[in-house]
């Protein structure tokens, strides 16, 4: 006999787990939400929010530095590192506090403060010795930073996303290992806050960018803020209280090292072997992306834990899908997923939506180095590539690295998800002078490349300054 029983047990009280518990309960389930800390989600505590707070401070510093372009001189720029970090933490604590308050308001008896592991497909053992029996289980245990072995020896000179926001002051210099999303966002922010930054990646491509033209623009923009060392294997060692990094016969020394080399799913310690699920070499079960079901078991996996789309909005969607199916099991409902959409909050932002160029696809390009509104704002850097399928030119994907990409990406995601064509988008009003107008050249190029005609009653040219 188990100590606790329920219809749906959710392991992990982050974004995905909270959504799963909420939706299972909404659909009539008795639920348990199990987490050792209920710290207030990775997003709010050590993820999206503190990183965007640091980026916001960096933008303020950059704007002051750049003001001279407009004839405005702010002589004597001084960045108060402790104040920058204090604001990051103060606002972060507020976001995390609100999330914790929400968790505390869940109905009595749902929260279980413990770490869970499977003892069979529907039984869990808690680290306080209690046993849980559930009709279905949702795994929503998130992901954690992976630190390659040589970097583990660096003591408190080593930073990850879990420690960088706790720094009392900005470091003088920082080596960033990994030019993925975390590495790029934090490297650029630190550089714009006056930290000397060098970024290393073993690959030649930053942030897995799939489009060469966009990657070239990104690389040269990043190289203005930091030293870039791509396609290299940095070797760390300790030397006189600093970290020495050796690579390709070169050497440099840094006050801190941020390791951002990926975040594998938290599945170790769950004892998934006891569930009877077939596991791959990484100990991962097969997860259906439309139902979140693992194999054919009454086990579901949502959020970063399944490693598929490790983003906040996806964690939330996947949690909801998993929670509903956990109570509906075995009568599962397959959900249609949203179009893949990822934003890296560099300046300018980097955005990837939907599919890459594929056979038969047509691509249109917009160059933001000459775009009117971008020039007005002195932010004229960037490239956009829109991909569409013949014969009608319906949009299938987009790669953007340009000012306003984080906002324009939402419009393009909507267009792609709704099967709109380049011509459909050109039928929309484009206000002048905006960054959105810059998309028109890419859309027109697609219209010319597919048999579909451009809207006949729209100006085929550009008003001045677009
Ligand atoms: C620095 C950084 C910046 C980011 N920025 C963005 C961004 O701007 N936009 C965006 O969309 N995404 C961003 N992300 C990604 C986003 O934060 C994650 O995709 C999202 O938080 C994942 O939510 P989750 O519920 O899967 O995991 P989490 O919120 O990590 O929740 C997992 C929970 O499981 C618990 N747990 C683990 N093991 C067990 C166990 N055995 N028993 C019980 N409980 C357990 C943990 O304590 C934790 O509470 C960022 C991530 C990082 C690291
Ligand atoms: N804006 C956002 O949405 C946002 C922001 C931050 C994080 N995230 C999420 O967090 C996840 C993890 O981010 P991440 O940046 O840690 O991982 P990542 O997988 O995006 O990038 C890791 C990078 O590290 C490199 N690398 C790995 N081992 C290395 C080594 N030994 N030496 C040098 N380089 C090495 C890889 O080549 C890769 O480029 C992302 O997948 C993303 O989903 C999202």
Explained architecture:
It comes from Salipiger profundus. Strand 8, helix 5 and strand 9 form a beta-alpha-beta unit. Helices cover 29% and strands 23% of the residues. It is built from eleven helices and 20 strands. The protein folds into three domains: 129 residues, 3-Layer(bba) Sandwich (FAD/NAD(P)-binding domain), CATH 3.50.50; 111 residues, FAD/NAD(P)-binding domain (3-Layer(bba) Sandwich); 118 residues, FAD/NAD-linked reductase, C-terminal dimerisation domain (Enolase-like, domain 1, 2-Layer Sandwich). Helix 1 runs parallel beside helix 7, helix 3 packs antiparallel against helix 4 and helix 3 packs parallel to helix 5. It is globular, with a radius of gyration of 24 Å. It binds flavin-adenine dinucleotide (FAD) and nicotinamide-adenine-dinucleotide. Flavin-adenine dinucleotide binds next to helix 1, strand 2, helix 2, helix 3 and helix 7.
């Amino acid at each position: 006999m188990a100590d606790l029983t329920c219809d749906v047990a959710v392991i992990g009280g982050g974004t995905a787990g909270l959504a799963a518990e909420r939706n299972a309960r909404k659909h009539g389930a008795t639920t348990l939400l199990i987490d050792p800390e209920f710290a207030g989600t990775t997003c709010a505590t050590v993820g999206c929010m503190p990183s965007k707070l640091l980026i916001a401070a960096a933008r303020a510093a950059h704007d002051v530095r750049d003001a001279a372009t407009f004839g405005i001189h702010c002589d004597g720029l001084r960045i108060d590192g402790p104040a920058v970090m204090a604001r990051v933490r103060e606002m972060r604590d507020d976001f995390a506090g609100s999330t914790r308050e929400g968790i505390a308001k869940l109905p009595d008896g749902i929260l279980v403060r413990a770490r869970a592991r499977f003892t069979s497909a529907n039984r869990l053992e808690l680290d306080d010795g209690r046993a849980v029996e559930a009709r279905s289980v949702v795994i929503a245990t998130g992901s954690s930073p992976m630190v390659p072995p040589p970097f583990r020896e660096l003591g408190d000179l080593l930073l990850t996303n879990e420690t960088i926001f706790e720094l009392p002051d900005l470091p003088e210099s920082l080596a960033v290992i990994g030019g993925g999303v975390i590495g790029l966002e934090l490297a650029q922010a630190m550089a714009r806050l006056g930290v000397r930054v060098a970024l290393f990646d073993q690959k030649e491509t930053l942030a897995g960018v799939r489009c060469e033209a966009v990657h070239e623009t990104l690389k040269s923009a990043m190289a203005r803020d930091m030293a870039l060392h791509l396609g290299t294997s940095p070797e760390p060692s300790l030397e006189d209280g600093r970290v020495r990094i050796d690579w390709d016969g070169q050497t440099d020394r840094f006050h801190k090292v941020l390791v951002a080399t990926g975040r594998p799913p938290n599945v170790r310690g769950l004892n998934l072997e006891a569930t009877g699920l077939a596991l791959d070499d990484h100990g991962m079960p097969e997860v259906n992306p439309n139902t979140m079901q693992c194999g054919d078991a009454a086990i579901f996996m949502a959020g970063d834990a399944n490693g598929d789309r490790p983003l906040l909005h996806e964690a939330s969607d996947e949690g909801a899908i998993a929670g509903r199916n956990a109570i509906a099991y075995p009568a599962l409902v397959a959900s249609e997923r949203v179009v893949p959409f990822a934003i890296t909050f560099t300046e300018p932002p980097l955005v990837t939506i939907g599919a890459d160029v594929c056979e038969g696809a047509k691509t249109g390009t917009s160059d933001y180095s000459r775009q009117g509104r971008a020039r007005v704002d002195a932010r004229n850097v960037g490239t956009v590539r829109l991909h569409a399928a013949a014969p009608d030119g319906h949009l299938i994907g987009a790669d953007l690295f340009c000012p306003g990409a984080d906002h324009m990406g939402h419009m393009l995601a909507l267009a792609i998800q709704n099967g709109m064509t380049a011509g459909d988008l050109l039928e929309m009003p484009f206000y002048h002078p905006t960054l959105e107008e810059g998309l028109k050249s890419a859309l027109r190029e697609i219209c010319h490349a597919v048999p579909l005609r451009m809207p006949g009653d729209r100006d085929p040219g550009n008003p001045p300054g677009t």
